[in-house]
Design goal:
- The complex is a heterodimer of chains A (254) and B (315).
- In chain A, helix 4 runs parallel beside helix 5.
- Chain A has 254 residues and is α/β, with parallel strands linked by helices.
- Chain A starts with 10 loop residues before the first strand and ends with a strand.
- Chain B has eleven helices and 16 strands.
- Chain B has an eight-stranded parallel beta barrel, surrounded by eight helices. In chain B, strands 5-6-14-11 form a four-stranded antiparallel sheet.
- In chain B, strand 15, helix 8 and strand 16 form a beta-alpha-beta unit.
- The longest helix of chain B is centred in the first third of the chain and has 18 residues.
- Classes of the chains: A alpha/beta (254), B alpha/beta (315).
- The interface between A and B is large, with 35 and 42 residues.
Chain lengths: 254, 315
């Protein structure tokens, strides 16, 4: 992205390798970097004549995107092989900001996608990283092996008990808060999980950074499609009219 | 903000001349309230149509440098569902002393009147009639803004349907925008909004394909400021009714220039997308600074300075 004139427009990136994460999730590793991308930021990924969708950045150097097959565009992206091209614009939005020295990262389902990138940034500073991952079942877990390999304190919960604790991720998060004494919690996942974590962090007086999913269309704060519902903004103490693409995706609380 | 920037537009009090342009963040009461709280003098809602529209698929918009291209495609919930949102928005904006301009569109001339009747129940301060969206030709054919005859016909329908003041939003890509403005004014339009985005497209050389899903879109931002200035300058020489000048306004000097071309209010759109709603307070402060430095007591005092015959006033 050296050419400033192209900032905001698409740049073609070639797929260097494809990693299988689980039955419907792959990570595309690209040739080339998106050096200015921060953990928690997103890019828009375009396949000509198919469409464009937002994805959180899974790695900046080299650029990587972790993509679950949930619709036509992500299906097409998941079918790519080394040598194929994806057109990328970004990075966009507000990413996570590492705060303090002990970090607790929480991922729900696909929300695990940006956490290895964030964990790596903290580990490079020699700081403590705990990670809690939750999913419906073992088959839907993401990034467990990669995070384990990085040397983080990993806790896992699945709703059916097929891996780790049985139940919701919030239960192991409570345990991690008590045992690991984090300075900040960082989370990405379904809105219900984020709202529960916001409550929990308020009770425990723990600052948190929550990455919200939005239906992003323009990606730049023009169309209003990714506005977080006003009742949720009120509950979180965010000002009304909070846009996931422009004000977020990461909301900073406490 | 002080009294210096205050504008009386058709008897409606605007605390400053900067109006959130249609299609930018005008989708919900909370977003419109936010734009007002961050300094907009007036708020235009996203155009509402007769029935719900999903709009186009992604990519719908790209922003680069100081310009934006979009083909969102008039995404809206339909005027019946839009009405309670406009009622709520009007309530919130009234509390802030910020007027609401409700934008509407339709596919047939008669439908414009029908949609206007629905929208009017929210008692917006002004109705803006969007006859110039460049991105929906696949559904609606050539925009009504393309000729004086069709523009006048839509104006007649809306005029007959509602008693509220109406402003008709014109397209720049016509041979004689002044004549179209005249035709619209003759049918009872109270104001003109000019301009809509300029038809344009992006092609990606690597892909060898158009970038927008709709292939073509509407260009806005810095690239079209000279186009907008010229259009407003032409219109101001042809009609007596006031103008909301829109297109590429991103600084206080841009706003001053648009007012000098003849605009009474100034639309701001792309700058809000590129910078956030904070753009309003910044542009207002810059405009105020310019006016104080040059001794203009109100926006009205510099309106139309660049028009032929006004040279004597200047300087």
């Amino acid at each position: 992205m050296g050419d400033q004139a192209r900032q905001g427009l698409m740049t073609a990136f070639e797929v260097a390798a494809v990693l299988v994460e689980n039955a419907r999730t792959r990570t595309l590793l690209f040739k080339g970097r998106l050096e200015n991308a921060q953990p928690g930021q997103f890019v828009m990924a375009w396949l000509p004549e198919i469409g464009e969708k937002p994805f959180s950045v899974a790695s900046a150097i080299p650029l990587a995107l972790t993509i679950s097959d949930v619709g036509p565009v992500s299906h097409a992206l998941n079918s790519l092989e080394a040598g194929d091209k994806v057109w990328i614009r970004g990075p966009f939005g507000q990413g996570y900001r590492l705060t303090g020295e002990r970090h607790l990262l929480v991922g729900g389902g696909y929300g695990a996608a940006p956490l290895a990138f964030l964990a790596k940034a903290a580990l490079q500073k020699g700081q403590q990283v705990s990670v809690c991952l939750g999913a419906k079942s073992e088959a839907e877990l993401l990034m467990t092996r990669r995070l384990e390999g990085m040397g983080v304190l990993l806790r896992v919960a699945t709703e059916d008990g097929s891996h780790g604790n049985m139940g919701l991720v919030t239960k192991i998060v409570e345990e991690a808060i008590s045992e690991d004494q984090p300075d900040t919690l960082y989370a990405c996942g379904p809105t219900g999980m984020l709202m529960a974590l916001a409550d929990l962090c308020r009770q425990r007086r723990l600052p948190c950074q929550l990455s919200f999913e939005g239906l992003m269309r323009c990606g730049v704060g023009l169309c209003g499609a990714c506005e977080l519902a006003e009742d949720l903004c009120v509950q979180l103490g965010l000002g009304g009219g909070w846009l996931a693409c422009h004000d977020g995706p990461v909301a900073f609380l406490g | 903000m002080t009294e210096l920037l205050r504008v009386n537009f058709l008897g409606i009090d605007f605390r400053n001349p900067l109006v959130l342009a249609s299609g930018i963040l005008g989708t919900s009461p909370s977003l419109m309230e936010r734009a007002a709280r961050e300094g907009a003098g007036g708020i235009t809602s996203k155009s509402a149509g007769p029935v719900p529209r999903a709009g186009h698929a992604n990519p719908v918009c790209l922003a680069w440098g100081n310009s934006v291209i979009n083909a969102v495609g008039l995404t809206n919930p339909g005027c019946a569902e839009e009405l309670p949102l406009l009622i709520e928005t009007k309530k919130r904006l009234r509390a802030l002393g910020v007027p609401l301009i409700a934008s509407l569109f339709a596919g047939r001339a008669q439908e414009f009147g029908e949609v206007a009747k629905v929208i009017a129940q929210a008692e917006p301060d002004l109705i803006e009639v969007n006859i110039s969206c460049p991105n929906v030709a696949s559904d609606f054919g050539t925009p009504f803004s393309a000729s004086a005859g069709t523009a006048a016909e839509v104006t007649r329908q809306v005029r007959a349907a509602v008693n509220l003041p109406i402003s008709v939003k014109l397209a720049p890509n016509v041979p004689d925008i002044g004549r179209i403005a005249q035709a619209v004014a003759a049918e009872g339009a109270d104001a003109i909004t000019a301009i809509n985005t300029v038809p344009a497209m992006l092609i990606d050389a690597d892909a060898g394909k158009p970038v927008l899903k709709n292939k073509t879109g509407g260009l806005s931002g810095a690239a079209i400021k000279p186009v907008a200035l010229r259009a407003v300058w032409e219109i101001a020489q042809m009609v007596e009714i006031p103008i909301i000048g829109t297109g590429g306004i991103a600084s206080g000097l841009d706003a001053a220039e648009m007012i000098m071309a003849g605009a009474s209010l100034v639309g701001v759109g792309s700058a809000v997308a590129l910078e956030g709603a904070g753009a309003f307070a910044r542009i207002a402060a810059e405009l105020e600074e310019f006016m104080l430095a040059r001794g203009y007591a109100s926006p009205e005092a510099m309106r139309g300075l660049a028009l032929p015959g006004n040279e004597a006033k200047n300087g």
